[in-house]
Predict the structure.
Amino acid sequence: MRSFYTELFTKQSRQSIFSYRCFLIIICLLLLSGGCKRAVEASGTKISTPVPVASIQVSPAEVSLAVGQKLQLSATLGDAAGNMLPHRKEGASHIVGSEVKTMTVIADTKGRAGRSVSWSSNRPDLVSVDAKGQVVAHAIGMAEITAISEKCSETVTVHVVESKHSGFSISPLSGSLMVGEKLPLVVSLASGKKNLPIVWKTEQPSRATVSQDGVVSALAPGKVLVQASNGEQKAEVLLVITPLELISGLDFPGNAGVNTTLRFEFAVPLAAFPATYIWRAYPRQQQSYYTSFFWGNNGVFHPSNTYYGFHPYPDWNTDQQQFWEVAAPPGGDHLSLEYVVYDRWYVQVAICREIGDTAVYEFFWDWPDRSRVIRYTGKRYANPPAPVLVVGDAPWNQGNEVWNGVLRGFQFYDSAMTLDEITKEISSPASVRKPWYQNLNPTPDDISDKSGNGHHPVWVGYERPVLWKAMVNAGGNKIIRTPIPACYE
């Protein structure tokens, strides 16, 4: 009996010692991995997941080349907010075993790996393009050059024409670029000619300048004639500069960044019904509640009175994700089937109408996708004691429902518009119906009504959002870049 217990104890002891050693090994591995991570971070290389590429812009947008000429195309990458993303840069090759590999250089100040861009031509017999975006004109005709990065692509047109110059010419022969872009020009010399210094100049320096190494900087829209000469010969190129539009918005810091409240309000709002709201939203992730805007009581929450709001609503099972929501009486939360996707732009539309004693709400949370809509029909309740329309925070839960992200592009109407009318109003504001309130590019210092109706809101308290700015292509809503970082101005 004793030998049995002794043997059992010995086995248990061995098992305990084995388990203890395994435990020590696991702890050491964890500490080692943590130490490695800290060592990597200490070396200046941060570990993070790259944000997706949301836009790609190729410059120049359209060019003409003579047979035999070359041109370097450039691609600008952006995320959903318009922040410029880095390209992947390849360093020197090195030998690993029997293979030759190329070092990938991280080219992002935030530690995110650079994105790769691939180039292709639909007519390589006319215009070829290499892996770095340099095109070569081979024969007269037209070719389309496409740049691809992740799921985004952009195509430019290259026209190849017969050269009218005998030896001294500029490449490209013509081109189009946007305000703020740069285009390197190259002079082609006939064989046997002297390599004399080249002098560059432009006839319209207010629209574009040119450096003495031939780099054109676009400053203002219009046509620009750029000349190159070497004392013996002269060539010129006509460039078209297309405009970019500066846009702005209100960057709200979310609940964690507010001490009191951060909202502006219309003390005398438009009627709750009928009404149509159009706005642009860029949400960032936060826990708990958001408010983009709310029509309801200015003070204590009255769930038995008319109110409504359209914004993210928490999924309390995860505490990290939100659905899109229509909030309506009596205390209802009507949610989308999909989670909110953060860090991207949305055009959003809400339509509120009444039919007898019934209230109808429609929230298109990812316009123009009409399938992404929340519809709710309920009883029409009486107005609250102190009706108000607020943007950025809820008046009855101040500081705890602050929008996290950017809001801009406000178009409010005192009518229930049709979907076709809304489409026209988004592309051309006030073309169908005059807004009750409009401010497409609000700033912390200017949220005034641009519709001409005089429905000016006011800030509540002393806290303000941050100014957000970006550049878009003229006449469109495609964000090109945000050259001005968010700042208080």
Observations:
- Confidence is low (pLDDT under 50) at residues 1-18, 23-48, 101-112, 483-489.
- Helices lie at 2-42, 419-427.
